[in-house]
Design a protein that fits this description.
Length: about 170
């Protein structure tokens, strides 16, 4: 299933919509499903951040950090990679893949620090830094998948450079 801007509005996915509003490109929440031949009581979900380009929004990234921001969709790419081999692996459990995808771009209509948005689970979030977009799009994806009564959720994202400071370059 693929949900575009109109469906995202109806669903209340304010995180994805807010992050994408500075870009002319359509945002999407994509739901992939793998079902084994034998019905399974166990369901697992992979939620992937799919920011196709992250400029930082109005909190623009420094030039030196912007060159590789097309890789800010690595979580989504991992979900797609897993789904590309599930039919060969034939796991005995149901697998759901959620991809929250859009661009984070500055423009005259982009989200601003101080804006307050409402994500899918009805919680409100104040935007302090427009470069913290991953948490917003994943909040909608995770809220959506929780509604599906999943047993286990794995979140895959490139969220912050502070992770490198905490763990170093060698630990994912």
């Amino acid at each position: 299933k693929s949900f575009g801007r109109n469906e995202l509005k109806k669903m209340g996915c304010g995180g994805i919509l807010a992050v994408s509003q500075g870009s002319p490109h359509e945002p999407y929440l994509i739901h992939l499903t793998y079902k084994p031949r034998v019905k399974s009581a166990k369901k697992i979900a992979l939620a992937g951040k799919g920011i196709t380009f992250d400029s930082g929004g109005l909190n623009l990234k420094p030039h030196d950090y912007m060159g590789n921001m097309k890789t800010d969709m690595a979580g989504a790419g991992t979900v797609l990679g897993v789904f590309s081999i599930l039919s060969d692996l034939k796991p005995k459990l149901e697998v759901h893949g959620l991809i929250a995808t859009c661009e984070n771009m500055p423009s005259g209509i982009a989200i601003k620090p101080g804006d307050v948005i409402k994500i899918k689970n009805k919680k409100t979030v104040e935007i302090n830094n427009t470069d913290a977009e991953g948490r917003l799009v994943l909040a909608d994806a995770l809220s959506y998948i929780v509604e599906k009564k999943i047993n286990q959720i794995i979140d895959l994202a490139t969220l912050t450079g502070a992770c490198v400071v905490a763990l170093g370059d060698d630990i994912a």
